[in-house]
Design a protein that fits this description.
mainly alpha, about 100 residues
Length: about 100
């Protein structure tokens, strides 16, 4: 069987995604993700040497729609999952130094 996804890994992924699953959800997701990995492991056993590489199984085309502006997202909702905020803005570490002129 494929590698098992344990509850600690599910909690880590949930933390990175800013999710707060219940203990029951963590157990459920651990089981479901482990089954997915087992299925992928089964697929890896298939001989695909004669299958041409494709990006999509079916033909894909763009569906365009008119670009109509809508109502903006409220600030509190936009920043709801921000790890840090400064008033109405995302707070991020400084990455560039400004030259003093």
């Amino acid at each position: 069987m494929a590698a098992r996804i344990d509850e600690q890994q599910v909690r880590h992924i949930a933390h990175l995604a800013r999710l707060r699953p219940t203990d029951a959800e963590v157990r459920l997701f651990s089981e479901q993700l482990s089954h997915i990995l087992a299925y992928v492991e089964q697929l890896n056993e298939l001989d695909t040497s004669d299958v041409p590489p494709t990006a999509h199984a079916l033909p894909v085309h763009n569906v365009f729609r008119e670009d109509v502006p809508g109502d903006p997202l409220p600030v509190d909702r936009a920043l709801a999952n921000a790890p840090q905020r400064d008033g109405d803005f995302f707070a991020v570490p400084k990455v560039l130094e400004q030259d003093s002129a």
